[in-house]
Specification:
alpha/beta, TIM Barrel, Lyase, Ornithine Decarboxylase, Chain A, domain 1, 8-stranded parallel barrel, binds pyridoxal-5'-phosphate, diaminopimelate decarboxylase activity, De-COase2_C, pyridoxal phosphate, Ala_racemase/Decarboxylase_C
Length: about 375
Amino acid sequence: MIPDGVRALAERLDSVPAYVYDLPGLDAHAAAVRAALPGTELYYAVKANPDPRLLETLAPHVDGFEVSSGGELAHVRACRPGAPIAFGGPGKTDAELAMAPGVARLHVESPGELRRLLARDGQPVDVLLRLNLDVPVAGAVLAMGGGATPFGMDGEGVAECLDLLGAGGRVRLRGVHAHLASGLDAPALLDLARAVLAEGRRLGLPEVVLGGGMAVSYTDPAARFDWAAYGAGLAGLRAPGETLRIEPGRALTAYCGWYVTRVLDLKRVHGEVFAVVAGGTHHLRTPVAKGHDQPFAVLPTGAGQEVSDAPVTVVGQLCTPKDVLARRVPVASLRPGDTIAFAMAGAYAYTISHHDFLMHPKPAFHYVT
Ligand SMILES: *Cc1c(COP(=O)(O)O)cnc(C)c1O
């Protein structure tokens, strides 16, 4: 399952831990996603992974970038100058709102935020209202909508915004935005799309953003989101004159990243085998954050006492029992010095991790090109 280029690089790294990004793999994946979405606009949700090389690889395949903070906005402006940007996220500061002129779209989170935007003067800003629809999001891994959450607005909030915007002016209402749940398959996301689109039509707004949240399976890395079914479904829902836009993060970049490390110590404690690797969840917090075993490949670079055909728990160097990357995973053979390449570390991986805990060295970043 590990691409040849990643394997070759991982085996000859003289310093670990490191992140290895498979740029040709990302390029091919993004091209396939783009091709499956005829007539639907595609933005990449930068918070999944803001690495400039990933943004560069994605750029030819996406219509723009969705950012969730002033920091991400400045980053994308610096490394992808001129690329269309959608600026969302709860709790925008006045300083962040001041950065809005020039973005393609600003996603308004609340009537209070809109009031602060209207109170500013300056260049025009094109906005979408972020909806929090009361629709069921059963099966979702994370729910940002479908009930009381801090994201977006219910009907009352939307009505208040429409009143505030009534007079027209420099803040121009273009449509609605929703990002209601994550971890959903194509049929479930199409159900949500129908509900969001119906609300856009009810409000007479022809531009509708459906968010991200396409499912990624960490237990079955080969199982992929059905982009073809989703793209065809969206094409069928869209009426002439309407714009539909999606903004996936995880399902675009998760697969291209590998966290590569080596086994420092292999030990048996009270009957259970532990492989202690260089680094840990302070570089790759994803398995702890999501409560899964991070899938991995073993590359035989080691020597010494072998453990064979045993369930192995892979832990990092942190002095906490939470520093577990994978639990009781059967491995055919493992030795100290073997390289372990954790798959699916391209999204919500390094940037969500607590890098400074215990002051271990930071990983290096390498790119297969
Ligand atoms: C995080 C986020 C996304 C991307 O979600 P994924 O689950 O990574 O696809 C899209 N839109 C908004 C508003 C987000 O906050």
